[in-house]
């Protein structure tokens, strides 16, 4: 029997999201989520997708740590005949946020790799520790199985130095590994490829601007399937206006917050990452709420929307300049896939760049990749649902199959 299943784990500090896929046909066998790990009110929601019955099972009660969480997941999968002890399981694919400069490809994790991942924690203190914990726990449950780390930064490793280097003192920057890395890489990789497919071209012949607009948001410029620029930097704070992150600002704002505002580094970190962006501007980070309030005439929601769109437009223009020739702009993630209003506002006025929407097509809701540009437009505008789990499973499976 060929082992074709891949379990994808996305381990956060207090949560684990998972999907079990069968790579023989890229189908999903089960999906689930463990939340509030370490609290009294933890919750495991497991949805089997085999046998026609997609009835979710929910456990509520204390789940002490990531090990208990994964054991809970394994027990649920066993009930559906999909246990982690199955010989059909080929690999476990782990989302790892930061790969630094070392990890630019999916990597089978051994003790050396684990040590290297630990050394990257200072670059992603909020994310990498939980990712590493997830790998360690999965390894303890199935030590014989390949654990494959797939990095959020990897797709951006092809950026030329002119794009990744900050104009900082080189010695200082290099000594501290300060450079632009970029994130959401599995999404940008997947969506840029799917966009080429939608246009009936190969990735090699296609130049795409990908706009990943979720609660976190990033743009990338992809030339011939290769990333040449992206909006997130050393951390996911740079670039677009996000749900709770400021995105770009004058670095001197930070000195001002410290010297004049009397804030500590940790307070500034929290302000820029958690209390800025849409939530800082209008009190809501959910784009649906922002749009609802704006439609009712709420001035601060309208301003938040305008700041968000202004930044987005600037990146579309900048990446058109970086690419020289643009074949498509692709919208993806929660906001990009669902908000016709954001797409409409972002593309309007960009006719000189060859961009124009078809109002009717843009208003349609669908789960399939689709074109929403006007017939006459020189550059395609696409809505392409992202699938980071499928991309992680695809990369992990390709690696273990050789
Ligand atoms: P994450 O970055 O957490 O993975 P998602 O890609 O799931 O985020 O996107 C979450 C965002 O998508 C939220 O801000 C949510 O408001 C937004 N969103 C979801 N549906 C809609 C919609 N119909 N209109 C506007 N925004 C939406």
From TrEMBL:
Mg(2+) binds at residues 10, 388. It catalyses: acetate + ATP = acetyl phosphate + ADP. Gene3D superfamilies: 3.30.420.40. Its main location: cytoplasm. Its EC number is 2.7.2.1. One of its GO terms (cellular component) is cytoplasm. It is found in: Cytoplasm. Catalyzes the formation of acetyl phosphate from acetate and ATP. Can also catalyze the reverse reaction. Belongs to the acetokinase family. This is Acetate kinase. The gene is ackA.
